[in-house]
Automatic annotation (TrEMBL):
<feature type="transmembrane region" description="Helical">
    <location>
        <begin position="90"/>
        <end position="107"/>
    </location>
</feature>
<feature type="transmembrane region" description="Helical">
    <location>
        <begin position="61"/>
        <end position="83"/>
    </location>
</feature>
<keyword id="KW-0472">Membrane</keyword>
<protein>
    <recommendedName>
        <fullName>YhhN-like protein</fullName>
    </recommendedName>
</protein>
<keyword id="KW-0812">Transmembrane</keyword>
<feature type="transmembrane region" description="Helical">
    <location>
        <begin position="6"/>
        <end position="28"/>
    </location>
</feature>
<keyword id="KW-1133">Transmembrane helix</keyword>
<feature type="transmembrane region" description="Helical">
    <location>
        <begin position="150"/>
        <end position="169"/>
    </location>
</feature>
<feature type="transmembrane region" description="Helical">
    <location>
        <begin position="35"/>
        <end position="55"/>
    </location>
</feature>
<feature type="transmembrane region" description="Helical">
    <location>
        <begin position="185"/>
        <end position="205"/>
    </location>
</feature>
<feature type="transmembrane region" description="Helical">
    <location>
        <begin position="113"/>
        <end position="130"/>
    </location>
</feature>
């Protein structure tokens, strides 16, 4: 079982494992970093359990939908922790969780992945992220874009954009379109956005590690 399990681990899953381990070892335990650790725990748990479900031929629709809701909700919570307008972002989080629950039970259901919930959560994150970035620009707070926390909140931007593009079309023919040799469009975009996502998170972890020794 162990040998078979390791043989199915892909590049993205290795990125998740490495990032989670480095975060556990090097991140100081302040509130933003604890939320990041929770996000990474959700990611690694989803990957491991999904892998086990695949080997046992168990449907993972409910697992991935719940994991994705937690993932996107925790990123919104991270924005709430770092930004000043906490009442607005908190209201957005409640709205997201409410709509995610409604979509799970009376919308897309518990059998298949809830695409609309992911897209809605990603859209909310991007709106809050862009709005705050413009607010900082208007106030000429250029130091905001230089601190490590801006790197942290920028890490999932391409991830949300890329996967929303794929999930938004939800066209099987498009997802299996070959971009090069036997590489499908979905796999290509998924690999790129996950690579950027976890590289930026590892860069953030590296900088946090250096700052903690200053």
């Amino acid at each position: 079982m162990e040998t078979k399990l390791w043989s199915y681990i892909n590049f993205t899953q290795l990125l998740v494992i490495v990032t989670f381990v480095r975060a556990m070892i090097y991140l100081p335990r302040n509130r933003p970093n604890r939320i990041l650790l929770a996000i990474l725990f959700v990611c690694i748990s989803n990957e491991v359990v999904s892998l086990i479900f695949m080997l046992k031929n168990i449907n993972n629709g409910l697992l991935t939908s719940v994991s994705m809701t937690l993932h996107n909700g925790l990123w919104l919570l991270l924005l709430n922790t770092l930004f000043d307008n906490k009442k607005t972002t908190l209201a957005i989080i409640y709205m997201f969780v409410g709509l995610a629950a409604a979509n799970l039970f009376i919308g897309e259901g518990t059998v298949n992945f809830n695409y609309n919930t992911f897209i809605f959560g990603a859209l909310l994150y991007l709106i809050v992220y862009i709005r705050e970035s413009f607010r900082q620009l208007q106030s000429e707070s250029f130091s905001f874009f230089e601190v490590n926390q801006f790197l942290l909140i920028s890490a999932p931007v391409l991830f949300f954009l890329g996967l929303s593009f794929i999930f938004g079309f939800r066209d099987y023919r498009l997802s299996v379109t070959k971009v090069y040799a036997d590489i499908h469009l979905y796999a290509f975009i998924g690999t790129i956005v996950n690579l950027v996502y976890y590289v930026l998170l590892n860069l953030y972890i590296h900088r946090e590690k250096k700052l903690s020794y200053v």
